[in-house]
Amino acid sequence: MITDFFSYRHDALHCDQVPLADIAARAGTPCYVYSAGAIRARIAAYDQALAGVPHCVCYAVKANSNLALLALAAAAGTGFDIVSGGELYRVLKAGGDPAKVVFSGVGKTAAEIEYALEQRIHSFNCESEAELVLIDALAARRGVRARVALRVNPDVDAATHPYISTGLREHKFGIDMAEIDAVYQRALALGSLELEGVSCHIGSQILDIGALMEAVDKMLALAGRLRAAGLPIRHLDLGGGLGVAYAPGTVTPDAGAFASAVRARVEGHGLTLMLEPGRSIVAEAGVLVTRVLYRKHSPRKEFIIVDAAMTDLIRPALYKAHHEIIPLRRTALGTVRADVVGPVCETGDFLARDRDVANVLPGDFLAVCTAGAYGFVSASNYNSRPRPAEVLVDGGAWRVVRARETFEDLVRGETAP
Ligand code: LLP
Q1: Catalytic residue among 31, 56, 126, 345, which?
Q2: What pLDDT score does 381 carry?
Q3: 345 noted as active-site residue
Q4: Which of 26, 179, 188, 223 sits 20 to 30 Å CA-CA off 49?
C-alpha cells in the first residue's frame, strides 16, 4: 500500500512526513498508525463528487471508532452511521452532531432506542415490523415523533465474502422487497413515526459497483412507488460497502468515482442522499506496525513470528483476508516465502500465509497495510494480550490517541475471591 500518505523516503516507510520507525520506537509495538490527511482526502472525495446534491456522508463508526478519528470526521462535516448505544456515546463524546446520526442494526434494544430519541438523532434505519412498533411506542411515551427509514433487503448479490454479504433474501438484514410496500402502509397507522426514508446496505468490501448500482435502481423504484402511494419519502440511504484494494493489482473504483456513479442515478429525484461508508474512508489510512520477534525454520515452512496477532487484526484469520506486509526499512536481503504469524496459541493466528515477504530479521519492523478499517475495533484480549496503542499522524506531527492497554486494564471489573 504505497499511497500519497504511506511512502518510502530514503528506504524508510513514512506516514505523511513521519518515519514509522520513530513511532514504533516511542509508542511501542504492536501499534496502529492512522493518517489524518488520508481520512480527510477520502471524505472530501465523497463530498466533492456529490457537491450540489443534497447529501450526508454518514461515516460508519463500526469501521474505526477511535474518538480522535470521529472528531476528525465530524470536523470534516460528516454525519455518522451507528449500530449501538456505545457508538452513539462515542459520536457525542467526539463532538459529532446527533442531528446527522442514523441508527442501523437488526437488534436495537429499548434502552438504545430511548437513548437515541433523547439525543434527537436524525433517523432510525428500521429492520423489522416488531422494531417499528417498539420505536413508535417509545417515541409516543416521550411525546416525540421518530424519523424512520425502513431498511429493505433488495435481494442483490454483493459478490463479497459470505460473512459480510447482507443483501440476499436469506440474510437476517432488512425487510423483504416483496413485503416492503405493505409494511410501509401498515406503519402509517403508527402515530409517532415519520416514515420519511428508504434504506439498504447490501454488504461490505464490494469491488464491482454493478451490484451497488442494481441496488440503487431498486431503491429508486421503491421510493417512487411509495411516493405515488402517498408516503412523504424524503431521503434515500444506500448504506456503505465500497471496497478497497487490499492486494496489489485489485481494480476498484475510488470513493469519488463511486459517488459520481451514484449521483448520476439519484440526481433529479428530489431525494436527500445518505451514504454510510466505513472501509472506503479509513482502511487505506491505517497500518498495523509490528516487530519481528523470531525467525523459525521448519522442514515444511519458514515462519516470521511477530508481536502482533489475530487479537490485534482478526481479518486474515476470520475471512482469509489479504493484507500487504512491508518492511519499515527496505533492506538488501531480498524476500523470503514465509508465514507471518503471531504469538497466540492457535494455528489460525496468522497475518499472512505462504507469502513472499521482506527477508526481515528479529528486531526489524513490519507494517501490515490497509488496516485502518475493522482492525482495532475487532481487537480482543484473548490470551490476555493488552490491546495495542493507536497513533494519529497529521502532516509532520503525531500523537497517541489510544494508550496501549496495561495488565491492570486486562482485569478491570473482575474480582478474585
Ligand atoms: N452500514 C451498515 C448498515 C453496515 O452494516 C456496514 C458494515 C456499513 C454501513 C459500512 O460498510 P463499509 O463501507 O465499511 O463496507 N468486519 C468486516 C466488515 C463488516 C462490515 C459490517 N457492516 C471486515 O473486516 O471486512
Answers
A1: 345
A2: 98
A3: yes
A4: 223
